Hints:
Layout (H helix, E strand, L loop, with lengths): L1 H54 L5 H7 L2 H22 L3 H35 L10 H23 L4 H18 L1 H15 L8 E4 L4 E8 L3 E6 L4 E5 H6 L3 E2 L1 H5 L4 E8 L9 H8 L5 H15 L5 H5 L8 H14 L11 E4 L7 E8 L5 H18 L13 H10 L1
Antiparallel strand pairs: 1-2, 1-5, 2-3, 3-4, 6-8, 7-8
Amino acid sequence: MIETLKNWLEAQIAVGWLNNLILHMITIIILLVVGYILFLIGKYIILSLISKLISKTETNIDDLLIEHRIPHRVLQLIIFTLSHQINKSLFFSEAAIYKTNESILYILIIISIVSIFDALLNFSSTLFNQSKYAEKLPSKSLIQALKLILYFFGVIFILSVVLDKSPLFFISGLGALTAVLLIVFKDPLLGLVAGVQVSANNLIQIGDWIKTPSHNANGTVKDLTLTTLKVENWDQTISSIPMQTLISDSFKNWRQMGQSAGRRIKRSILIDANSIDFVNSELLDQLTQLPLLTNYLKDKQEELANYNSSDSAHSFKKTHIHRQLTNIGTFRAYCLEYLKNNPNVNSELTLIVRQLEPTEGGIPVEICTYSATTNWIAYESIQSDIFDHLYSIIHKFNLRVYQKPSGKDIQSIAKSS
């Protein structure tokens, strides 16, 4: 008798549980069917009408709205909101069913809201990248930072629905986890802060030529994210650089050079000290044949003649020493005139030809000037042409370029001895 009663009670419990399960499934199916009907109405009537209206406009902004599926996501939010109202109207008297459906619909509504704001951020990024300010201020890092904040609050609100707690409960509880989060997520947080600083101060833009010695990277910036910088090196390799190293370590950005009126040419010609001498009459006649030196030699000869005949040269006359032209000084004057008359040199910028301190490798004559273009290929060609010409004409000044003895020179010395 007792065993029979026990079996009957278990059967009743099982039937009641099964009935509740079937009832829950039926309510969910009803909501899904209603939501699907609303979706079909919105997709084939409302969205089709919106797409036709947008296709007739001339502006590109509404096309971007469709591209990022913002109307579709708004439609999803409307459907979930209407489903919530339907659930409230039909099943409010059934507390358990109503509460379960309400929690699911709240989660879907939160996800829809997050997806709408995510699409709006993508839309804003695309719109900004099409503007004239895109090259001056990279927006990708800022968009990613805003997305992190958006997802953070989305997770907080979903947890509050699942656990039936206020969102303030989770936000206030994060204070105790701050120390742990700082230790566990130290590198991502440092990258986040560095990415915001780089974007806010406009230190690096996509397309910039940068050089980071600490990571052996030298090339063009291809991608700039919140935590990582990708550089395409000149050997076609890709370097991935953490953003925090751009703040802690030094790097060189050539952007300003590319936007300027010229790129600097700075190189020295090493003159053999044994070839330096005064300009004699024979060399003077030879140098007079160079058109760029005609005015210089004429003015210089008059200046030296006036000085040597003046009272200020009296002390030099006693020792039979007077001022004379030198071949290295005349060569410097030629270099200066050559650069001034070179159309590939920007003579409006700094233009210096100077003699540096003697070294064991000879006496450096340094040329510091700027090309008329910042294009790398053209710049290298201009620089090479300038020094090709100067190396080729230097023998006309009876000067020699210093060069360490090679194997051929040693063989010649051995044969002559």
